[in-house]
Amino acid sequence: MSLLEVRDLKVSFDTSDGLVQAVRGVSFTVERGKTLGIVGESGSGKSVSTQTLLGLTAGALIDGEALFEGQDLLAMTDEQLRRVRGKEIAMIFQDPLSSLHPLYKVGKQIAEMIRQHEPDVNKAQARKRAIELLGMVGIPEPGQRVDDYPHQFSGGMRQRAMIAMSLALNPKLIVADEPTTALDATVQAQILDLMLRLQREFDTALIMITHDLGVIADLADDVLVMYGGKPVEHADRRSLYYRPHHPYTKGLLESIPGSTGAKTRLKPIGGQPPSLINLPTGCAFHPRCEYVMDRCVTEEPLLAAVGDKDGFPDLGHTSACWLPKEAAGLDAEAENLRQEAVALGRSADSPAATVVDAGEAQ
Amino acid sequence: MSLTDLEAEASVPPASEEPDGRKIEGRSPWQLAWARLRKDKAAMISVVVIVLLIVMALLAPLIAKWVGYAPDFGDRKLGQTVDGLPVGPNGHHVLGTDRFGRDILVRSVYGARVSLLVGLVSTVLAVVLGVIIGASAGFYGGAIDTILARAMDVTLSFPYLLFALALAAGFGASVPLTIFVITFFSFASIGRIVRGQVLQIKEREFIEAARSLGAGSIRTMFIDVIPNLIAPVTVLGSMTIPTAIIFESTLSFLGAGTDPRTPTWGNMLSDATQSYTVAWWTLFVPAAFLLITTLAFNILGDAVRDALDPRSERLFAAQKANRKKKRK
Amino acid sequence: MTQDADVLVEIDDVYKHFPIKQGIIFKREVARVHAVDGVSLQIRRGETVGIVGESGCGKSTLARCITGLHPITGGRIVFDGQDISRMRGKQLKPFRRDVQMIFQDPYGSLNPRRRVGAIIGDPFDIHGIASGADRKKRVQELMELVGLNPEHYNRFPAEFSGGQRQRIGIARALALKPKLIVCDEPVSALDVSIQAQVINLLKDLQEELGLTYVFIAHDLSVVRYVSDRVAVMYLGKIAEYAEGEDLYEKPRHPYTNALLSAASIADPDAAERRERIVLTGDVPSPIRPPSGCRFHPRCPKAQENCIELEPELIVRDGDAAGHETACHYPVDPAESLATEHAAIEQLSTEPTLPSA
Fold it and tell me: Where in this chain does the record put each ABC transporter domain (chain A) (predicted)?
């Protein structure tokens, strides 16, 4: 049994401007000790989907199933969910300041959390554990720092304290939502290093949500790319970076300056992310896609296997795109396949013809 | 946090949107706020109530003529019992009379004139004064800020009732004096909030952008700072009106506001303390008018704030909606 | 330094300190933030100078000193042969036409209560260049130039997405045909797929209009992509300054090495191959910067010498001309820092404000 299995999760919000479809059907599994990376831009639904699992999206309309060790998180009462949160599943946010109470000492907050979930631990023991945890995440002089207030910590130290807190109860799953986005490069390196080490030590599963493809390349086993509230590609790390199939994934990889310093012109994805109230018909990406075909405008593609493994379709690499499954990768051969498919799939007077060449203009 | 994200998402226009003639003229933040306000039923009812009250106040002499009693006319024949007590609501005096036999309906209608006049005029004065002082303090900073901010602190620490009673004793109670007192004690709290807002706006990058373009401080103040104050000031103003109305009634009740003979709600309430044990309507009617008026202004004020600040509205809507749960 | 006709901006030993004041009525200075602490740079016409560094290194403050938004505490800035560092108010107005800024936050840098046409047309108003129909025509030309639909002239900023708003900011900066544009983290608030659009636009405009850029960012790969020369800042000082490729291929300062090794790479194989230099601790407080070399408390190569003696920013042995490093013991390309540890015990790095 997988540690976490999410099936067809849908989340929407009823606002005065209309129904915001934040998540439109996401399924994924997380195995013990593994890392799932979820990549997407703002509005892709990457944060909302995990927040929903932990009951943090008040006022949302929710549908689907999320089995954590066989129990449906979405069917739990608030009380049951509270017991799971922290003890079984911990969360690390982008902004540690908003998750640490400003008026309580850092150590006390960690100790309180331990005592809340483990009532038979006394105050002195909880404090001792808080000091151990702070030391473990690399806070210097934890015995003194335990009595500091959050504002006395630097940004990197606060994020460490948050990690210490999330580890306090030895959870089976940690959900990290952009944990290093607010941090500088050298501090980000420290934190990612720490998370990797701790994960290995405690065999914790990790869901890493980020917009930074670099962070994912460092530590994810599997990667889920989301766009407009839906997953568009799901693959192991190597396949995703070296054999991307979905034009959106390919576009993301091509739009960042490479590490080689080549000054060839960047290839941006044209247009703007979609409105979640007024989603495009068919494939949500079609208005920005350079390979748009006739059927993309009307029919929504489903996730399907795009790779082969020992002669069978590789279910570990799926993509929601009408392009032929062989057209994966960044090389010229794959590009030829894509162009051939487009030549066949696009008629002159179709609605797709007007969206072509989204190029750089909008 | 997810909701603020969502708001940003929701405000992104659809990518495929084509410029059709209707859409090109951008909707201003005010038009958007008005559209939101119109959807709010409670706010619309409040607007209707306020408009009715204003119409009633304007038409007070006509109403008096139609009812047949002047506000100061003590009706000895039909307005008092043989023992000289007030009469309750009846065919001649629809809402009864007070202990001098004066018609409560007519007096209440005239009372609306004073209450609304004092409420609106002192609010406008307080807002203007508050914005000028608060904005100058926040925008120029330094010594100007220190002096103005301390002056506002001093004003706020005055015991306002004692001050009002002393003034009334010295100059005699009157409407202008009431307006002066209310303005004097309201502007400082508005000024403080405006100063805080200006300090925040000053830190925004568009102010820096204006400066880097070479814009002078007067231009920056009027083009970039003040327009961004209008929303918070509108909210502050609409919240100040009901406070000012109650303030006026309180002062009148204590004899430190308007001339005790003037028909105002506060004076009527003050009068009613002599008679409410035998004539409940003398207390009930002006109190009800006061309650309805302040309630309408308060609800409208809340709605204006929500309309101008869609984020809080969204959060509120989210709280109202229940999390849909699956049950097995 | 020599005056060179090719040099557009000469930044000469510039200091910018912010006083920290305490007290309710009588404020007195209790400490100073040493935001920029003796920086010298030359920016040539038509080139892009990138400035990288972590938060608090003073790169944004330096940008605001160059644009004249912050009066400088010491040193001098010469723009196009004119010393602007002592100018005030009206004297600065011609200079303001020549130097423009693009800001980081596409939401904060546009006044939400004004229409886009008015925002982009502001420079024409302020400098009394065009008004009425002429102004509208020019604004629409600018909108077209940056890839916005000129018909959206009457819209409000809230009706545009982040990338489009950044284009509005760029159009406003271009209005007066400036010589220098200072870009302060122009793409870091944008979505990945939009960043490339804006970077390409900036590059196209530079080619078309012969602009000079100062490009500030914390994203090393973006800076590498756009810049001809790159300066690495640490705690208010320049640690290393070199031609872009030279700096990235052969970094000499230990801090540059650490920064480059810490940057995330969107390539799993490369990410596994590289060795990370994980620095200890955090950036010290700019209120009381460390003595000697400011990097010494975190430096894996630090020696006694580094605590006392401040290294000069000069060309080191074996480096190309123009590759300046402020380090006593510059890193050899063959040397691997990742295996070493800080030699000197790190003292407290936390900012402590003196209590009142």
Answer: 4-253
